[in-house]
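Hi R.,

Here's the chain you asked about this morning:
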Amino acid sequence: MFKLKVKSHFDAAHYIKDYVGKCSRMHGHRWEVVVELQGKKLDKMSMLVDFTTVKRAMDYVIDSHLDHYVLNETLGEENLTAEYLAEWFFRQMRARAVGVEVVSVTIYESPDCSVTYSEGVGT
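And the predicted structure, written out as tokens:
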């Protein structure tokens, strides 16, 4: 089994409605996103999938919905958490069908805090 990871980032604002604390106010982050894919079969170039193909799919999602947006508005979610964003990004990548299985998406809200979403048992 081959596992491949591609990392990117974007800048965006959000808030968490009814949160007790400063995160209830609109604030921004440099979000980092890591997409992990897997598969068993390599192509004729001995690649699982070209990094550029994955990067283009990620760039499309980031540029059209996330980068320099207020995420609550663009994604239509009052409580825009890192957990929500990880699942949302996972579904966006899976819908872009880059030819291999999307295993997980990890969202870093800060360098020290992240959340990973996957649909597999025990991954």
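Strands lie at 2-14, 27-39, 101-110, 113-118.

Let me know if you need anything else.
M.
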